[in-house]
Amino acid sequence: MIELWSLIAGVVLLLLLMAVAIKGWLAPRQFQERTRASRELGAMEPCPEEFVSRIFSPADREFVRGLKAGSIERLFEQERKRVALVWVHQTSAMIRKVMREHAEATRESKNLEFSTEINILAQFLTLMAVCWILSVAVQIGGPLWLGGLAHFGQRLSQQVTKLQESFQAGVLAKAERVGRA
Amino acid sequence: MLSQVFWWSSIALEIVLLVRGLSSRLAYRLPVFYGYIAFVVLQDLARVFAFEWNPQVYRGVYWVTEFLGLAVGSLVVFEIYRVSLAAYPGAARMARNALAFVFLTALAKGLAAGSPGWQTASTALEIERALRAVQATAILALVALFMFYSIPFGRNLRGILLGYGFFIGERVICLTFIPPQGHHFWFYAYSASYIVALGLWLSHLWSCQPTPEPKANIKLEDGYQRIAAGTRRRLQETRGYLRKAVRS
Protein backbone atom coordinates (compact mmCIF):
# COMPACT_ATOMS: atom_id res chain seq x y z
CA MET A 1 0.00 0.00 0.00
CA ILE A 2 2.83 2.40 0.96
CA GLU A 3 4.62 1.37 -2.26
CA LEU A 4 1.62 2.35 -4.39
CA TRP A 5 1.23 5.66 -2.56
CA SER A 6 4.95 6.41 -3.10
CA LEU A 7 4.73 5.52 -6.76
CA ILE A 8 1.69 7.77 -7.30
CA ALA A 9 3.39 10.67 -5.46
CA GLY A 10 6.55 10.25 -7.58
CA VAL A 11 4.75 9.98 -10.92
CA VAL A 12 2.42 12.93 -10.22
CA LEU A 13 5.35 15.07 -9.08
CA LEU A 14 7.35 14.25 -12.22
CA LEU A 15 4.38 14.97 -14.52
CA LEU A 16 3.64 18.27 -12.79
CA LEU A 17 7.27 19.39 -12.96
CA MET A 18 7.47 18.40 -16.63
CA ALA A 19 4.39 20.55 -17.29
CA VAL A 20 6.00 23.40 -15.31
CA ALA A 21 9.21 23.09 -17.35
CA ILE A 22 7.56 22.68 -20.78
CA LYS A 23 4.79 25.26 -20.40
CA GLY A 24 7.04 27.76 -18.62
CA TRP A 25 4.76 27.95 -15.57
CA LEU A 26 6.08 29.79 -12.49
CA ALA A 27 8.26 31.94 -14.75
CA PRO A 28 7.65 35.73 -14.45
CA ARG A 29 7.07 36.06 -18.24
CA GLN A 30 4.20 33.61 -18.05
CA PHE A 31 2.45 35.65 -15.38
CA GLN A 32 2.67 38.79 -17.51
CA GLU A 33 1.05 36.87 -20.37
CA ARG A 34 -1.54 35.52 -17.99
CA THR A 35 -2.38 39.02 -16.75
CA ARG A 36 -2.73 40.17 -20.34
CA ALA A 37 -5.00 37.22 -21.10
CA SER A 38 -7.10 37.98 -18.05
CA ARG A 39 -7.39 41.64 -19.16
CA GLU A 40 -8.53 40.44 -22.59
CA LEU A 41 -11.05 38.12 -20.97
CA GLY A 42 -12.28 40.97 -18.80
CA ALA A 43 -12.76 43.14 -21.87
CA MET A 44 -14.73 40.36 -23.60
CA GLU A 45 -18.50 40.85 -23.67
CA PRO A 46 -20.40 38.26 -21.61
CA CYS A 47 -22.92 36.15 -23.48
CA PRO A 48 -26.36 37.89 -23.48
CA GLU A 49 -28.81 36.08 -21.21
CA GLU A 50 -31.51 35.62 -23.86
CA PHE A 51 -28.90 34.04 -26.12
CA VAL A 52 -27.63 31.68 -23.38
CA SER A 53 -31.17 30.57 -22.53
CA ARG A 54 -31.65 29.37 -26.12
CA ILE A 55 -28.54 27.16 -26.26
CA PHE A 56 -30.10 24.30 -24.32
CA SER A 57 -33.72 25.09 -25.19
CA PRO A 58 -35.65 22.64 -27.45
CA ALA A 59 -37.77 25.42 -29.06
CA ASP A 60 -35.41 26.05 -31.99
CA ARG A 61 -35.00 22.34 -32.67
CA GLU A 62 -38.74 21.90 -32.85
CA PHE A 63 -38.93 24.73 -35.34
CA VAL A 64 -36.15 23.18 -37.50
CA ARG A 65 -37.81 19.76 -37.27
CA GLY A 66 -40.98 21.36 -38.56
CA LEU A 67 -39.12 22.23 -41.78
CA LYS A 68 -38.74 18.47 -42.43
CA ALA A 69 -35.25 18.86 -43.95
CA GLY A 70 -32.73 16.33 -42.63
CA SER A 71 -29.65 18.24 -43.81
CA ILE A 72 -30.77 21.47 -42.13
CA GLU A 73 -31.52 19.57 -38.94
CA ARG A 74 -28.02 18.02 -38.93
CA LEU A 75 -26.42 21.38 -39.62
CA PHE A 76 -28.46 22.96 -36.84
CA GLU A 77 -27.37 20.28 -34.34
CA GLN A 78 -23.70 20.66 -35.30
CA GLU A 79 -23.84 24.42 -34.97
CA ARG A 80 -25.73 24.30 -31.69
CA LYS A 81 -23.14 21.87 -30.27
CA ARG A 82 -20.31 24.21 -31.27
CA VAL A 83 -22.03 27.21 -29.71
CA ALA A 84 -22.70 25.25 -26.50
CA LEU A 85 -19.03 24.19 -26.28
CA VAL A 86 -17.85 27.78 -26.78
CA TRP A 87 -20.23 28.90 -24.05
CA VAL A 88 -19.00 26.20 -21.62
CA HIS A 89 -15.41 27.15 -22.42
CA GLN A 90 -16.16 30.83 -21.85
CA THR A 91 -17.90 30.09 -18.56
CA SER A 92 -15.00 27.98 -17.27
CA ALA A 93 -12.59 30.78 -18.29
CA MET A 94 -14.74 33.21 -16.28
CA ILE A 95 -14.55 30.92 -13.23
CA ARG A 96 -10.77 30.63 -13.57
CA LYS A 97 -10.53 34.42 -13.84
CA VAL A 98 -12.51 34.86 -10.60
CA MET A 99 -10.12 32.47 -8.84
CA ARG A 100 -7.03 34.08 -10.31
CA GLU A 101 -8.16 37.50 -9.17
CA HIS A 102 -8.93 36.09 -5.73
CA ALA A 103 -5.50 34.42 -5.47
CA GLU A 104 -3.67 37.53 -6.62
CA ALA A 105 -5.56 39.70 -4.13
CA THR A 106 -5.19 37.39 -1.14
CA ARG A 107 -1.67 36.00 -1.52
CA GLU A 108 -0.23 39.07 0.24
CA SER A 109 -2.89 39.24 2.94
CA LYS A 110 -1.53 38.65 6.44
CA ASN A 111 -4.90 37.58 7.86
CA LEU A 112 -5.77 34.94 5.28
CA GLU A 113 -7.92 32.10 6.69
CA PHE A 114 -7.12 28.50 5.80
CA SER A 115 -10.70 27.22 6.20
CA THR A 116 -12.16 30.01 4.04
CA GLU A 117 -9.58 29.36 1.33
CA ILE A 118 -10.35 25.62 1.36
CA ASN A 119 -14.06 26.41 1.12
CA ILE A 120 -13.49 28.69 -1.88
CA LEU A 121 -11.22 26.11 -3.49
CA ALA A 122 -13.90 23.43 -3.05
CA GLN A 123 -16.48 25.74 -4.66
CA PHE A 124 -14.10 26.42 -7.54
CA LEU A 125 -13.30 22.74 -8.09
CA THR A 126 -17.01 21.84 -8.04
CA LEU A 127 -17.78 24.46 -10.68
CA MET A 128 -14.85 23.34 -12.84
CA ALA A 129 -16.06 19.74 -12.54
CA VAL A 130 -19.58 20.85 -13.59
CA CYS A 131 -18.10 22.63 -16.63
CA TRP A 132 -16.09 19.56 -17.52
CA ILE A 133 -19.16 17.30 -17.20
CA LEU A 134 -21.20 19.75 -19.28
CA SER A 135 -18.51 19.79 -21.95
CA VAL A 136 -18.37 15.97 -22.10
CA ALA A 137 -22.18 15.70 -22.11
CA VAL A 138 -22.48 18.27 -24.92
CA GLN A 139 -19.86 16.44 -26.97
CA ILE A 140 -21.53 13.07 -26.44
CA GLY A 141 -25.22 13.89 -26.61
CA GLY A 142 -25.47 17.51 -27.72
CA PRO A 143 -26.86 20.52 -25.84
CA LEU A 144 -30.49 19.67 -26.57
CA TRP A 145 -30.19 16.22 -25.06
CA LEU A 146 -28.53 17.83 -22.04
CA GLY A 147 -31.34 20.39 -21.76
CA GLY A 148 -33.87 17.53 -21.87
CA LEU A 149 -31.91 15.68 -19.22
CA ALA A 150 -31.85 18.76 -16.98
CA HIS A 151 -35.62 19.16 -17.38
CA PHE A 152 -36.11 15.47 -16.59
CA GLY A 153 -33.89 15.87 -13.50
CA GLN A 154 -35.81 18.93 -12.41
CA ARG A 155 -39.20 17.18 -12.85
CA LEU A 156 -37.88 14.14 -10.98
CA SER A 157 -36.61 16.31 -8.13
CA GLN A 158 -39.98 18.13 -7.98
CA GLN A 159 -41.83 14.80 -7.85
CA VAL A 160 -39.51 13.57 -5.08
CA THR A 161 -40.10 16.81 -3.15
CA LYS A 162 -43.88 16.44 -3.56
CA LEU A 163 -43.71 12.80 -2.49
CA GLN A 164 -41.62 13.76 0.52
CA GLU A 165 -44.07 16.52 1.45
CA SER A 166 -47.07 14.20 1.18
CA PHE A 167 -45.20 11.55 3.18
CA GLN A 168 -44.40 14.13 5.90
CA ALA A 169 -48.02 15.30 5.89
CA GLY A 170 -49.13 11.66 6.27
CA VAL A 171 -46.72 11.08 9.16
CA LEU A 172 -47.92 14.27 10.88
CA ALA A 173 -51.59 13.31 10.40
CA LYS A 174 -50.89 9.86 11.82
CA ALA A 175 -49.06 11.38 14.80
CA GLU A 176 -52.02 13.69 15.42
CA ARG A 177 -54.48 10.75 15.26
CA VAL A 178 -52.34 8.78 17.72
CA GLY A 179 -52.17 11.85 19.97
CA ARG A 180 -55.98 12.25 19.94
CA ALA A 181 -56.51 8.55 20.64
CA MET B 1 32.19 0.65 -14.52
CA LEU B 2 29.00 2.64 -15.21
CA SER B 3 28.64 3.28 -11.47
CA GLN B 4 32.14 4.79 -11.42
CA VAL B 5 31.24 7.03 -14.37
CA PHE B 6 28.13 8.28 -12.50
CA TRP B 7 30.13 8.80 -9.32
CA TRP B 8 32.95 10.81 -10.81
CA SER B 9 30.79 12.79 -13.22
CA SER B 10 28.44 13.82 -10.41
CA ILE B 11 31.39 14.90 -8.25
CA ALA B 12 32.79 16.94 -11.15
CA LEU B 13 29.40 18.59 -11.85
CA GLU B 14 28.86 19.36 -8.16
CA ILE B 15 32.27 21.08 -7.96
CA VAL B 16 31.51 23.14 -11.09
CA LEU B 17 28.14 24.12 -9.56
CA LEU B 18 29.81 25.17 -6.30
CA VAL B 19 32.51 27.18 -8.08
CA ARG B 20 29.88 28.93 -10.23
CA GLY B 21 27.74 29.61 -7.15
CA LEU B 22 30.65 31.25 -5.37
CA SER B 23 31.80 33.29 -8.36
CA SER B 24 28.27 34.54 -9.19
CA ARG B 25 27.62 35.13 -5.44
CA LEU B 26 24.46 32.99 -5.67
CA ALA B 27 25.87 30.84 -2.86
CA TYR B 28 25.39 33.79 -0.49
CA ARG B 29 21.78 34.31 -1.58
CA LEU B 30 20.85 30.62 -1.41
CA PRO B 31 23.15 29.28 1.34
CA VAL B 32 21.13 26.17 2.21
CA PHE B 33 21.08 24.90 -1.36
CA TYR B 34 24.82 25.40 -1.84
CA GLY B 35 25.43 23.92 1.61
CA TYR B 36 23.51 20.87 0.42
CA ILE B 37 25.68 20.61 -2.71
CA ALA B 38 28.85 20.92 -0.58
CA PHE B 39 27.49 18.19 1.70
CA VAL B 40 26.83 15.92 -1.30
CA VAL B 41 30.39 16.44 -2.61
CA LEU B 42 31.78 15.37 0.77
CA GLN B 43 29.31 12.49 0.92
CA ASP B 44 30.35 11.24 -2.54
CA LEU B 45 34.04 11.46 -1.68
CA ALA B 46 33.48 9.63 1.63
CA ARG B 47 31.59 6.88 -0.23
CA VAL B 48 34.29 6.50 -2.89
CA PHE B 49 37.02 6.14 -0.26
CA ALA B 50 34.94 3.79 1.88
CA PHE B 51 34.17 1.64 -1.16
CA GLU B 52 37.85 1.40 -2.09
CA TRP B 53 38.90 0.70 1.49
CA ASN B 54 36.30 -1.80 2.76
CA PRO B 55 32.91 -2.76 1.20
CA GLN B 56 31.52 -3.56 4.69
CA VAL B 57 32.35 -0.07 5.93
CA TYR B 58 30.91 1.35 2.68
CA ARG B 59 27.46 -0.10 3.52
CA GLY B 60 27.34 1.74 6.84
CA VAL B 61 28.74 4.96 5.37
CA TYR B 62 26.22 4.78 2.50
CA TRP B 63 23.12 4.59 4.71
CA VAL B 64 24.31 7.16 7.26
CA THR B 65 25.12 9.71 4.53
CA GLU B 66 21.93 8.85 2.61
CA PHE B 67 19.69 9.72 5.58
CA LEU B 68 21.76 12.79 6.41
CA GLY B 69 21.38 13.87 2.76
CA LEU B 70 17.64 13.37 3.05
CA ALA B 71 17.51 15.63 6.11
CA VAL B 72 19.66 18.35 4.50
CA GLY B 73 17.56 18.02 1.31
CA SER B 74 14.44 18.80 3.34
CA LEU B 75 16.10 22.08 4.31
CA VAL B 76 16.41 22.86 0.57
CA VAL B 77 12.61 22.50 0.28
CA PHE B 78 12.30 24.84 3.25
CA GLU B 79 14.62 27.35 1.58
CA ILE B 80 12.49 27.27 -1.61
CA TYR B 81 9.41 27.95 0.55
CA ARG B 82 11.14 30.72 2.54
CA VAL B 83 12.64 32.61 -0.40
CA SER B 84 9.71 32.32 -2.81
CA LEU B 85 7.00 33.25 -0.33
CA ALA B 86 8.87 35.94 1.61
CA ALA B 87 6.79 38.67 -0.04
CA TYR B 88 3.51 36.73 0.12
CA PRO B 89 2.44 36.18 3.76
CA GLY B 90 -1.02 34.91 2.77
CA ALA B 91 0.32 32.23 0.44
CA ALA B 92 3.02 31.40 3.05
CA ARG B 93 0.33 30.75 5.65
CA MET B 94 -1.48 28.40 3.25
CA ALA B 95 1.82 26.63 2.51
CA ARG B 96 2.50 26.09 6.24
CA ASN B 97 -0.95 24.59 6.69
CA ALA B 98 -0.61 22.41 3.59
CA LEU B 99 2.82 21.13 4.70
CA ALA B 100 1.54 20.48 8.24
CA PHE B 101 -1.32 18.49 6.71
CA VAL B 102 1.09 16.43 4.58
CA PHE B 103 3.39 15.64 7.52
CA LEU B 104 0.54 14.83 9.91
CA THR B 105 -1.07 12.54 7.32
CA ALA B 106 2.28 10.79 6.76
CA LEU B 107 2.78 10.44 10.52
CA ALA B 108 -0.72 9.03 11.00
CA LYS B 109 -0.17 6.62 8.11
CA GLY B 110 3.17 5.56 9.59
CA LEU B 111 1.63 4.99 13.01
CA ALA B 112 -1.32 3.11 11.52
CA ALA B 113 1.08 0.80 9.68
CA GLY B 114 3.29 0.49 12.77
CA SER B 115 2.33 -2.93 14.01
CA PRO B 116 4.78 -4.21 16.68
CA GLY B 117 7.20 -5.86 14.26
CA TRP B 118 7.00 -3.17 11.58
CA GLN B 119 10.03 -1.10 12.51
CA THR B 120 12.36 -4.07 12.84
CA ALA B 121 11.07 -5.71 9.68
CA SER B 122 11.60 -2.61 7.55
CA THR B 123 14.80 -2.33 5.59
CA ALA B 124 16.69 0.93 5.19
CA LEU B 125 15.50 0.96 1.57
CA GLU B 126 11.85 0.84 2.65
CA ILE B 127 12.34 3.60 5.21
CA GLU B 128 14.06 5.77 2.62
CA ARG B 129 11.24 5.16 0.15
CA ALA B 130 8.61 6.20 2.70
CA LEU B 131 10.54 9.36 3.67
CA ARG B 132 11.23 10.31 0.06
CA ALA B 133 7.52 9.84 -0.72
CA VAL B 134 6.67 12.30 2.08
CA GLN B 135 9.22 14.72 0.60
CA ALA B 136 7.69 14.26 -2.88
CA THR B 137 4.19 14.93 -1.53
CA ALA B 138 5.41 18.06 0.28
CA ILE B 139 7.03 19.39 -2.94
CA LEU B 140 3.87 18.51 -4.87
CA ALA B 141 1.73 20.48 -2.40
CA LEU B 142 4.11 23.45 -2.61
CA VAL B 143 4.18 23.48 -6.43
CA ALA B 144 0.37 23.29 -6.56
CA LEU B 145 0.18 26.19 -4.12
CA PHE B 146 2.74 28.26 -6.08
CA MET B 147 0.66 27.73 -9.19
CA PHE B 148 -2.64 28.50 -7.47
CA TYR B 149 -1.38 31.79 -6.03
CA SER B 150 0.56 32.69 -9.22
CA ILE B 151 3.86 33.09 -7.34
CA PRO B 152 6.45 34.31 -9.86
CA PHE B 153 9.81 32.56 -9.59
CA GLY B 154 13.16 33.87 -10.71
CA ARG B 155 15.19 31.62 -13.02
CA ASN B 156 17.53 30.53 -10.19
CA LEU B 157 14.89 29.46 -7.70
CA ARG B 158 12.83 27.84 -10.45
CA GLY B 159 15.89 25.79 -11.40
CA ILE B 160 16.42 24.61 -7.82
CA LEU B 161 12.76 23.61 -7.55
CA LEU B 162 12.72 21.80 -10.90
CA GLY B 163 16.03 20.00 -10.28
CA TYR B 164 15.31 18.93 -6.73
CA GLY B 165 11.69 18.01 -7.50
CA PHE B 166 12.76 15.95 -10.51
CA PHE B 167 15.46 14.22 -8.46
CA ILE B 168 13.00 13.33 -5.67
CA GLY B 169 10.24 12.19 -8.06
CA GLU B 170 12.66 9.98 -9.99
CA ARG B 171 14.15 8.66 -6.74
CA VAL B 172 10.72 7.67 -5.37
CA ILE B 173 9.84 5.80 -8.58
CA CYS B 174 13.22 4.02 -8.67
CA LEU B 175 12.98 3.07 -4.99
CA THR B 176 9.62 1.43 -5.67
CA PHE B 177 11.14 -0.93 -8.24
CA ILE B 178 14.76 -1.24 -7.16
CA PRO B 179 15.70 -4.73 -5.91
CA PRO B 180 17.57 -4.91 -2.57
CA GLN B 181 20.63 -6.53 -4.18
CA GLY B 182 22.51 -6.18 -7.47
CA HIS B 183 22.87 -3.61 -10.23
CA HIS B 184 19.80 -3.53 -12.48
CA PHE B 185 18.15 -0.93 -14.71
CA TRP B 186 16.51 0.85 -11.76
CA PHE B 187 19.83 1.05 -9.93
CA TYR B 188 21.36 2.97 -12.86
CA ALA B 189 18.20 5.06 -13.36
CA TYR B 190 18.48 5.94 -9.66
CA SER B 191 22.06 7.20 -10.13
CA ALA B 192 21.33 8.89 -13.46
CA SER B 193 18.45 10.93 -12.00
CA TYR B 194 20.94 12.87 -9.91
CA ILE B 195 23.09 13.67 -12.96
CA VAL B 196 19.97 15.05 -14.71
CA ALA B 197 19.17 17.17 -11.63
CA LEU B 198 22.73 18.50 -11.62
CA GLY B 199 22.39 19.39 -15.33
CA LEU B 200 19.17 21.30 -14.57
CA TRP B 201 20.82 23.15 -11.68
CA LEU B 202 23.87 24.08 -13.74
CA SER B 203 21.77 25.45 -16.59
CA HIS B 204 19.52 27.49 -14.28
CA LEU B 205 22.18 28.62 -11.78
CA TRP B 206 24.99 29.50 -14.16
CA SER B 207 24.53 33.19 -13.44
CA CYS B 208 22.60 35.25 -10.91
CA GLN B 209 19.21 36.36 -12.25
CA PRO B 210 16.97 38.97 -10.59
CA THR B 211 14.03 37.71 -8.56
CA PRO B 212 10.73 39.25 -9.69
CA GLU B 213 9.41 41.73 -7.15
CA PRO B 214 5.69 41.65 -6.35
CA LYS B 215 3.63 44.59 -7.52
CA ALA B 216 2.65 46.93 -4.69
CA ASN B 217 -0.74 45.80 -3.45
CA ILE B 218 -3.03 48.76 -2.95
CA LYS B 219 -5.74 46.66 -1.28
CA LEU B 220 -6.37 47.16 2.42
CA GLU B 221 -4.69 44.63 4.67
CA ASP B 222 -7.89 44.00 6.62
CA GLY B 223 -9.86 43.46 3.41
CA TYR B 224 -9.39 39.69 3.26
CA GLN B 225 -12.91 38.89 4.48
CA ARG B 226 -14.35 41.30 1.94
CA ILE B 227 -12.34 39.76 -0.92
CA ALA B 228 -13.24 36.20 0.15
CA ALA B 229 -16.94 37.09 0.45
CA GLY B 230 -16.82 38.70 -3.00
CA THR B 231 -15.20 35.62 -4.56
CA ARG B 232 -17.76 33.29 -2.95
CA ARG B 233 -20.62 35.46 -4.17
CA ARG B 234 -19.20 35.55 -7.72
CA LEU B 235 -18.77 31.77 -7.74
CA GLN B 236 -22.31 31.28 -6.44
CA GLU B 237 -23.62 33.60 -9.14
CA THR B 238 -21.78 31.55 -11.77
CA ARG B 239 -23.30 28.37 -10.37
CA GLY B 240 -26.77 29.93 -10.66
CA TYR B 241 -25.97 31.12 -14.18
CA LEU B 242 -24.93 27.58 -15.21
CA ARG B 243 -28.03 26.01 -13.66
CA LYS B 244 -30.36 28.57 -15.24
CA ALA B 245 -28.83 28.13 -18.69
CA VAL B 246 -29.06 24.33 -18.72
CA ARG B 247 -32.61 24.30 -17.32
CA SER B 248 -33.90 27.05 -19.63
Detailed description of the structure:
The complex is a heterodimer of chains A (181) and B (248). Chain A is mainly α and 181 residues long. Chain A is built from seven helices and no strands. Chain A has helices at residues 2-23, 28-43, 49-55, 59-66, 70-106, 114-141, 143-180. In chain A, α6 (114-141) crosses α7 (143-180). Chain A is extended and about 70 Å long. Chain B has 248 residues and is mostly helical. The chains are: A mainly alpha (181), B mainly alpha (248). At the A-B interface, α1, α2, α3, α5 and α6 of A face α5, α7, α8 and α10 of B.
Note the main attributes of this structure.
heterodimer; A: 181 residues; mainly alpha; 7 helices; extended; B: 248 residues; globular
Q: What proportion of the residues of chain B form beta strands (DSSP E)? A: under 5%
Q: Cα distance, first to last residue of chain A?
A: 61 Å
Q: Give the largest interface pair and sizes.
A: A-B, 66 and 69 residues
Helix and strand composition category of chain B: mainly alpha
Q: Counting H and I runs of at least 4 residues, what is the number of helices of chain B?
A: 10
Overall outline of chain B: globular
> Roughly what is the average pLDDT of chain A, rounded to an integer?
79
- Please count the beta strands of chain B (DSSP E, at least 2 residues each): 0
- The class by helix and strand makeup of chain A works out as mainly alpha
Q: Radius of gyration of chain B, rounded?
A: 22 Å
Order of helices and strands of chain A: HHHHHHH
Tell me the helix content of chain B: over 70%
